[in-house]
Amino acid sequence: MKHEGRMPFLCVTCGKGFTTKNSLNCHEKTHAKIKGYVCKECNLGFSVASNLRAHQKKHHEGVRFYCSQCTRAFITKCSLERHELVHTGIKEFKCGSCKAAFYTNKELLKHQRYHQGLRLYKCDQCFKTFFEKHHLTIHIRVHTGERPYACKVSGCGKSFTESQKLSRHMKARHPIIL
Q1: What sign does the dihedral 128-130-136-142 (CA atoms) show?
Q2: Are 37 and 47 in contact (CB under 8 A)?
Q3: Fewer Cβ atoms within 10 A, N terminus or C terminus of the chain?
Q4: Integer Cα distance of 36 and 143 in angstroms
Q5: Spatial CA neighbour of 111 closest among 96, 90, 127, 126
Q6: Are residues 174 and 156 in contact, defined by beta-carbon separation less than 8 angstroms?
Q7: Which residues make Cβ contacts (< 8 Å) with residue 34, sequence separation at least 6?
Q8: Where in the cell is it found (predicted)?
């Protein structure tokens, strides 16, 4: 079925199609808002084990390079070197269309997409477009109902689609705990 492009197993909540019943079952857990898989490093919750594993691999495994200026750690030396530019305060890459400046050429190129109107990332469900991939990732949670950032304060029960929204919630509702 995968090679034929058919997706006979449809989610009744959001309409997303899957090639296998097992894939549909895993997906449906994201709608249940039950985060049975919790990262032991940062307490972030996931409804599907494979999402937890991907998170751990991306954020916690293989960290070998530590910034001497702050607490950040990186998997590659290149990532560390790019980060260390932040501590210099020198933004060498300047936008020709506005006064914005950046630490890396990659950041400048990403910024220039806004001036050019290049929305490279499109939602497969509603076709809304985005300038940055992480904005699409956050948007997709509107369709899946996934809210991976949960407040850990006993009895609160709030969860959020973005880590920044959880941080804002903690500052506003639980400032003593911070």
Answers
A1: negative
A2: yes
A3: C
A4: 20
A5: 96
A6: yes
A7: 47
A8: Nucleus
DSSP string, 156-174: T--EESSHHHHHHHHHHH-
Are the CB atoms for 88 and 99 separated by under 8 Å?
Answer: no
Q: How many helices (H) and strands (E) does the chain have?
A: 6, 12
Q: Is the pTM of this model over 0.85?
A: no
Q: Which amino acid is at 115?
A: H
- Sign of CA pseudo-dihedral 71, 57, 148, 40: negative
Instruction: Give the pLDDT confidence of 143-160 residue by residue, as tens digits.
Output: 999 988 888 888 899 999
* CA distance linking residue 141 with residue 159, whole number of Å: 12
Query: What mean pLDDT is predicted for residues 121-135?
Result: 91
Cβ contacts of 98 within 8 Å, gap of 6 or more = 115
44/31 Cα distance (integer angstroms): 17
